[in-house]
Amino acid sequence: MTNGVGLASGRDDCVLPFAVEPLDLRGRLARLGPALNAILTRHAYPDPVARLLGEAAALTVLLGSMLKADGRFQLQTRTDGIVDMLVVDFDAPDRLRAFARFDAALVPPDGAIDSGAVLGRGHLALTVEQGAEIARYQGVAPIEGGSLEQAALIYFQQSEQIPTFIRLAAGQVVTSAGTSWRAGGLLAQFLPRSEERRRQADFPPGDAPEGHPGHEWVEDEAWTEAQALASTVEDHELLDPGLSSEDLAYRLFHERGVMAFPAHPLRDSCRCSDERVEAMLRSFSQVERDDMVGDDGMISVTCEFCSTLRRYNPADFREK
Question: Which one, of 240, 168, 181, 173, lies nearest residue 37 by Cα?
């Protein structure tokens, strides 16, 4: 494997870009360890919820790490599943935060539940902000099979029209230091110079006459081979804390020659602050602030992302 200059070892909390030039393939490997574990344990999510949010975090950093240094990327789902909302924010170059909203009454004590029922059906929204001079962009894709992987693939097929492979994994790993949550993801895209080679199969024509032959489409051989190699990745490889991203990329694509570039580090970091919360409270009317006062006579605000509790004296915000 050929390494980019200044390559950092990628085992924990990083995204590793790579390329397989003979196959016109560009990709990224995401490995989340302590940062994700801090997010999930902070909220004490049940295992099925934590696993889903871990996958969402891996998908978010795979996509968000492509942004410029001042960009923001958000993944959000709204569905009819047990987890009716997921929100994951990535602030370039390295800040990650996430939370899940779910119906605890529907999660059995043993956590034994169909993964499709956890996410359910609805939609996936991907939002990109890259500064004041560039318009905010949002892409939406349906969630139909209870799978974030499938929803992301539909998004790339419909919106980006880039042949894409995605694999996500999340789970608990036992090491000498104890049990902790980890997540990983692989994103591979077929990006030849010729746009004609990027063509994908058309969606089935819903209004085609009965007996009308479908459009014959032949997939590019390079992309067929790339998908075959990428699909050999196993969940345990994406989660293994002892396997670096560079070694995993080599394991998957060494037959064709893979080039790895410097890994991008990630960290658990919330954008909430005393100043932001105080500004938010001042934006409400006096009547609205009065309704926020609790039995203890204080206004309490808990951040949904980092669970930080802030308490304020209503008198400090009273209109004069």
Answer: 181
How many structural domains is the chain composed of? 2
Total residue count of the chain as it appears in this document? 320
Domain region containing 303: 274-317
d(CA 40, CA 51): 9
> Residue 169 pairs with which residues in a beta bridge?
184
Same domain, 191 and 279: no
What mean pLDDT, rounded, does the chain reach? Answer: 88
Q: Which of the four pLDDT bands, split at 50, 70 and 90, describes residue 209?
A: low
With respect to residue 203, please indicate whether it lies within any of the assigned structural domains: no
Tokens representing residue 239 in the block: 């989660």
Q: Is the pLDDT of residue 158 over 60?
A: yes
For the segment 2-12, the average pLDDT, to the nearest whole number, is 50
pLDDT for 281-302, tens place per residue? Answer: 989 888 888 899 988 989 999 8
Write out the two tokens for 299: 């206004």
Q: How far apart are CA 56 and CA 36, in angstroms?
A: 11
Indicate the DSSP class of residue 293: B
Query: Which residues face 302 on adjacent strands?
Result: 309
* Dist CA 38 CA 45 (whole Å): 11
119, containing H or E segment: helix 115-119
- Tell me if 28 sits within 8 A of 189, measured CB to CB: no
28 band by pLDDT with thresholds 50, 70 and 90: very high
Same domain for 250 and 279: no
The answer for residues whose C-beta is within 8 angstroms of residue 241's C-beta and 6 or more apart is 11, 12, 33, 173, 175, 182
Residues 211, 234: Cα–Cα separation, whole Å:
41
Q: In this structure, is residue 99 part of a structural domain? A: yes
Cβ contact 49:117 at 8 Å: no
DSSP H or E stretch at residue 112: none
